[in-house]
Design brief:
CATH topology: Leucine-rich repeat, LRR (right-handed beta-alpha superhelix)
Number of helices: 3
Strand content: 5-15%
Largest sheet: 4 strands, parallel
Order of helices and strands: EEHEHEH
Radius of gyration: 13 Å
Number of strands: 4
Helix content: 25-40%
CATH superfamily: Ribonuclease Inhibitor
Distance between the termini: 36 Å
CATH class: Alpha Beta
Length: 112
């Protein structure tokens, strides 16, 4: 999926169930994007090989990545990156046994 073909003013985007395997472009240009639903695609391999390329503007609040074949390491990396966004509130993924340090990071961020 090429993000350059989308209007930069969108506030929500859902590609739920489209079967995409990767994204081209950056969400950094989407200054109004609040909710992103990428559930039920095949982003696991792409995200695990380039999690640093999955960047967002300050407006992002919710990202849903259900059923994408993500591994625990990728989820942990996403938590580390997204916790720095001031408006970020929710990363919805499949159930993972997160390490205590990641659980602590999440609790520290959201208990303020």
């Amino acid at each position: 999926m090429n993000l350059e073909n989308l209007p930069k003013s969108i506030t929500e985007l859902s590609t739920r169930g489209f079967g995409f395997e990767e994204l081209r472009g950056s969400f950094m240009n989407f200054h109004n994007l609040v909710t992103l639903d990428l559930s039920y695609n095949n982003f696991g391999e792409w995200l695990s090989s380039s999690p640093d390329g999955f960047q967002f503007c300050e407006s992002i609040e919710t990202i849903r990545l259900w059923d994408n074949g993500l591994d625990t390491e990728t989820v942990s990396s996403l938590v580390h990156t997204l916790k720095e966004k001031p408006n970020f509130r929710r990363l919805a993924v499949d159930s993972y046994p997160l390490s205590e340090d990641i659980q602590r990071l999440v609790m520290e961020h959201y208990s303020h």
